[in-house]
Design goal:
Largest sheet: 7 strands, mixed
CATH superfamily of the largest domain: Type I PLP-dependent aspartate aminotransferase-like (Major domain)
Order of helices and strands: HEHHHEHEHEHEHEEEHHHEEHEEEH
CATH class of the largest domain: Alpha Beta
Low-confidence stretches: none
CATH architecture of the largest domain: 3-Layer(aba) Sandwich
Strand content: 5-15%
CATH topology of the largest domain: Aspartate Aminotransferase, domain 2
Number of strands: 13
Mean pLDDT: 96
Radius of gyration: 21 Å
Structural class: alpha/beta
Bound molecules: pyridoxal-5'-phosphate
Shape: globular
Helix content: 25-40%
Strand order of the largest sheet: 2-8-7-6-5-3-4
Amino acid sequence: MTQPPSADGVIRARSDVERLKAYSAPLEGRRGMLRLDFNENTIGPSPKVVEALRAIPAEQLAVYPEYDGLREAVVANLAALPAGLAHDLAPVCVGVFNGVDGAIHAVLQAYGGAGDTLLTTSPTFGYYAPCAGMQGMAIEAVPHQMPGYGFPYEAVMAALARSPRVLMLCNPNNPTGTRLEADRVLSLAAAAPNTLVVVDELYEAFTGDSVLPIIDFNATPNLLVLRSLAKTAGLAGLRIGFAIGHAEVVDRVSRVTGPYDVNSLAVTAAFAALEDQAFVDTYVAEVLRAREFVVSELERARVRFHVDGGNYLLLWPCRPASAVEAELRDAGILVRSMVGKPQIDGSLRVSLGSTEQMRRFLETYRLIDGLPD
Ligand SMILES: Cc1ncc(COP(=O)(O)O)c(C=O)c1O
């Protein structure tokens, strides 16, 4: 459709894009700080990943990436986890993307058309809405159940009766930690065979609830699972994520990406990370220990907080959240203010790192927000 001429001479984009604001996150100047603001791994990747990256010959940089064997490595990694896979997973059931962000974008590009509905919960991960918006989709966001940020199961089930094109479930949910049992995810998918149900399992390693140990994609072809090496294996900077589902769905989602969207350094790092599951397990165990420590300290101090799934918690400072966020930054610690977000306004989202890192956070936070010792 022809866009009306603009007075300033700037060529207008599609009307859906004109309505969008660029998705921006405060990503600059974070090096050297204690980064508790993006739920990243706070200690870096396995030394084996670093070794593999250092061993990359210069020639590799001049050649387009190769993906041979990567899907097989993902399947082997999943099958070897304690919960394992209920059914054999063919490598074609794994799509490789430029981070889970790339997968989310591709899913909505492939499945979301103008006027279709994206059903999700609120508040949730902030990148779903712009990806739906750029497709001209309508968004129906069901609030979590209060108090406690429970998953609004009945309300989501009722909304599924209206056949939204896509249901995006963040499990556990970022930022509320809301968890949904795997069999309930399957019940939602079974109730809406014409809706693509996408489960973003970015943080499942910290609390379980993955559908992969019980799913049969032949029986439930409308379910797609997103997994990333960003938050547990520490590859956030390299950008690699996976979409796992029925081969026909993965094929369709992969059709809207470029042939080399995932770079070869990320591929090399992913192979090494997938082979060193012990590193991830040790990191996850440390984060869970740190969570226990933080929770006991916050309970002792009688401050308002909320923690459930994932490697993060919500904390309500006595003083305005943005002021506390800024003062923590001055002290070298980054957290995210949730100011203005429904249900969690006034809180800070604090990622969980190692016990030592959380001790440092609490010591500084005590001074800034007047937490009792
Ligand atoms: C719920 C959720 N999904 C996806 C992403 C993006 O993951 P990736 O780094 O693999 O693109 C994030 C990052 O914060 C997230 O919190």
